[in-house]
Amino acid sequence: MSQSTDKKKNSKSKKAIEPAGKTYDLSVFWKSVKDEHPVPMKTRIRGEIPAWIEGSLYRNGPGLFEIGNDTYKHFFDGMALIHRYHIKNGQVTYQSKFLRSDNYHKNMSSNRIVCAEFGTIAHPDPCHNLFQKVAAYFTVPKGGDNCGVNMMYLGDELYAMTETQYMRKVDVKTLDTAKDDKVDMTKYVAVNMATAHPHYSNDGTHFNMGSSFSKVCKYNILKIEPPREGESDKQRWSVLCSIPARGRDPSYYHSFGMTDNYIVYLEQPLVVNVLKVLTAKIRGNALTNCMEYRPKNKAYFHVVNRHTGERLPTVYTADAFFCFHHINAYEDDGHIVVDMCCYNNEEIINRVYLEELKKGLPPADEAEGRRFVLPLNKGSKTKNLVTLSYTKCTAELAEDNTVFCTPEKIIEQAFEAPRINYERYNGKKYRYVYGILGNNQGLIKVDVVNKTFEVWEEKGFLPSEPVFIEAPSPTSEDDGVVLSAVINSDPNTPNFLVVLNGKDFTEIGRAEIDTQIAYGIHGLFVPNV
Q1: Taking Cα atoms as reference points, which of 110, 104, 103 lies closest to residue 127?
Q2: 313 Cβ contact list (under 8 Å, min separation 6)
Q3: Whole-number pLDDT of residue 286
Q4: What is the pLDDT of residues 406-460, one digit of tens each?
Q5: Could you tell me the pLDDT band of residue 382, with boundaries at 50, 70 and 90?
Q6: What is the pLDDT of residues 104-158, one digit of tens each?
């Protein structure tokens, strides 16, 4: 068994992954999990799991791609499977359970796919009569509650999230989903879809982004207060600010940035064609068929004061690009620094169709860490407005009074699913980010100050999104551990939860699990649960 010997150190001038075009065994992406494990299973510990780690790592993502004779077409579409890795006293237990969403129940009772998802159209609901089936073709399609993207911990409540208007409450210990635990955001705020990447502040307040489709489409910044005795759910939800879309068709987005004082929203050139959405059912189109990338459109950065809801008058622009994940954003000497994982176009969405994944080409091998700097005081200068000494980013005042921004690369290495020491450094100047290598074959730690990186990998395994947990009484930003669920396509080889030293990125220990585990997408660690 290889452990720290598989770790490779790389300089900023050397790439760690093979040239684009090399194929890999990516079958874990579309391999359905047939059995759930609601009762915690013991794991075998190799090495050591630090005794100070106590809590649960929750992970979420697609776990079932075949229902009856039907198969989902896109990686994002499979039925949500919730995982819990409970860590205490140096031991780890594992359990899993399919989210009992309305979509899940409808599909299972029909033994076929009757609920459309991101990239998959569906059979008509057999429970509808002829009039309902005909009427359904002429109504705006509603998003479903197959909440298989991320998890949110609000107060002492755990929620599964997706990119529709729905969330599902999940029991923190049993992973059960109660029938009345479905949250419809439209009852509280005007949204048709929202991200599954909320931000939260130290007082427990959460912020999210949601779009509302109407004659003038808007991007709404949502503010969600933690549960308080005597307050109704409706009292906890509010719209902090609404940003009108620049055209008829709103931008697609997966995440956003937050600093100590600002929300940073990226309006990118990948849009949701509203007319195509309205006619999706009659045309037999999934949501992915209603999205268009418009490379002639610039990317727009909108900045909103997160304390007052006031939108800054300056609009920041950049050449067209696509982004799933923000890394971090922070303020420094009159600037907002925004770091993201970026692509030159939207092909990453097409490359995670199951048929594309079966070709073995890494979907994220073009993911590029980029830094943009937004000067808060644009003045009247026509030269570079960025005065920070440690960046090559530029920002220039354009004739239309917008500020055009040119980014710089964070590192010469493709990576995705970025995670930082969130509790202490989100919205603040930081140094380290952890992620998945662009070829999906390893984990990476990036030093954004020195522009160097380190890699952990093990041949034949695909690690999932790394999650950083800070050590007690930390002495540095990276003083802690990194957790990642590592999956193997070989059923005779155990999957495992790996624990890496956050500082030198070597393996401390692993918890081996003798059962099939879905790859998943995102998750979070909740202490003492």
Answers
A1: 110
A2: none
A3: 85
A4: 999 999 999 999 999 999 999 999 999 999 999 999 999 999 999 999 999 999 8
A5: low
A6: 999 999 999 999 899 998 866 555 443 333 334 344 455 799 999 999 999 899 9
pLDDT digits (tens, 9 = 90+) for 228-249: 887 787 889 999 999 999 988 9
Q: How many CB atoms lie within 10 A of CB 35?
A: 7
Task: Count, in order, helices (H) and strands (E) of the chain.
Answer: 8, 39
Phi/psi zone of residue 68: left (φ > 0), alpha (ψ -120 to 50 degrees), beta? Answer: left
Cα(first)–Cα(last) distance of the chain, in Å?
Answer: 31
CB atoms < 10 A from the CB of 381, how many? 11
Does 54 or 8 have the greater pLDDT score? 54
Edge-to-edge strand order for the sheet containing 55-64? Answer: 37-42, 91-98, 79-88, 55-64, 522-527
pLDDT of 177-201, one tens digit each? 987 899 999 999 989 889 999 999 9
Q: Residue 330 class from Cβ within 10 Å (0-12 exposed, 13-18 middle, 19+ buried)?
A: buried
Task: Judge whether 293 and 322 are in contact, CB under 8 Å.
Answer: yes
Q: Tell me how far apart the alpha carbons of residues 55 and 159 are, in angstroms, rounded to a whole number.
A: 17
3-state SS class at 353: strand
Residue 208: both structure tokens together: 């999210």
Q: How far apart are CA 477 and CA 474, in angstroms?
A: 7
Query: What is the spatial distance between Cα 76 and Cα 353, in angstroms, rounded to a whole number?
Result: 8
Q: Tell me the two tokens of residue 417.
A: 């699913």
Average pLDDT value for residue range 269-289: 83
pLDDT of 4 strictly over 50 = no
d(CA 68, CA 74): 17
pTM of the predicted model over 0.90: yes
Does residue 11 surpass a pLDDT of 70? no
Could you give the C-alpha distances from 237 to 158, 171, 188, 286, 368, in angstroms and in order?
A: 17, 22, 6, 30, 35
Residue 5, pLDDT score: 38
What is the CB neighbour count within 10 angstroms for residue 233?
12
Residues, the chain, total? 529
* String of DSSP letters for 150-177: EEEEETTEEEEE-SSSEEEEE-TTT---
Report d(CA 126, CA 129) in Å as an integer.
8
Query: Nearest CA to 513 among 490, 484, 493?
Result: 493
Question: How far apart (Å, rounded) are the C-alpha atoms in residues 230 and 510?
Answer: 44
Q: CB of 151 within 8 A of CB of 58?
A: yes
> What one-letter code names the amino acid at 407?
P
